[in-house]
Amino acid sequence: MGYDALLWLSFGGPEGPDDVMPFLENVTRGRGVPRERLLEVAEHYRHFGGVSPINKLNREAMAAVEKRLAGAGMDLPVHFGNRNWHPMVEETLAALTAEGAKRVLVFPTSAYGGYSACRQYDEDIERARAAVGDGAPELVKIRQFFDHPLFVSAVADGVRAAHASLGDEPGIRTVFTAHSVPESADRASGPPPEGGHRYSRQIAEAARLVAAEAGIAEYDVVWQSRSGPPQVPWLEPDIVDHLDALHEAGVPGVVVSPIGFVSDHLEVIWDLDNEAAERAAEHGMKFARAATAGSDPRFAELVVELIREHTHGVAPRKLSPFPAAGCTVNGAPCAIGCCEPAKRPAR
What we know:
Helices cover 42% and strands 12% of the residues. By secondary structure, it is an alpha/beta fold. Strands 2-1-3-4 form a 4-stranded parallel beta sheet, with helices on both faces. The longest helix is centred in the N-terminal third of the chain and has 18 residues, at 54-71. It is globular and about 60 Å long.
């Protein structure tokens, strides 16, 4: 049995000033985030006219994938669905069901494992199928791809170009960043028998692979975009704190590669292009931010290759010893207890 469509499943983002607070309320529903914090984050979006770049970037990437699919003679329409803003995944799946789709591949816009990076997409799939009810198509989620050679080479070329933009000056430090998560979430990432920390270990492995591809011997892996209360431990160090430490150590400049992101999300353009870049400037450090993989032509090629693993039996290509994970059906987790969300204490 073949597939009727590809569902491009992403986080979502506001596309105008009036969308910002409703979007943030969707993102934080059930998490008890104070309104003051939402208003603070809303200012980041309003700095860019209330528009997140994520939907536009997703549509551009989808168009590149559709073009490559057509060029390969593959009849697989691509449909867009989000977790937190329109087009919502429930709406998209309802439309696919009405069109008679029976079996749909799902591409989640995350390369990694972990709750936020993988299992929450399983929950999106399960929720959307429940909303549609009887007749909802079977949804097959595509695997994680942080160690795919096309992803690695695209990120590595971005790092090389960023170094070249600084004149390949000696002493420039390469720093890889990814979205921080609570330490408890990282401990719970992956199947329990694996011992946890799958998310941070995959980030570290991706950084190692990219550094090797780019010919970089020394580099750092740090974190960004934490949003939790200060009493909850999150993965550290934060990129801005790390820049302070590098300055103290006499490092003249940095190339920052947001390896944990597939495209220039708001977290990338605010936390790196604004906050981190400003801190580097305060220290008199050179700063260049490497491109994300999503705008590279190899990213569309990667997605099509992942699709062909299902449609044509193409052998998976990967560069790490990590098991190929994340490919599940109808929202089932990869394994029992895999990436269990943290239980919040009763109030």
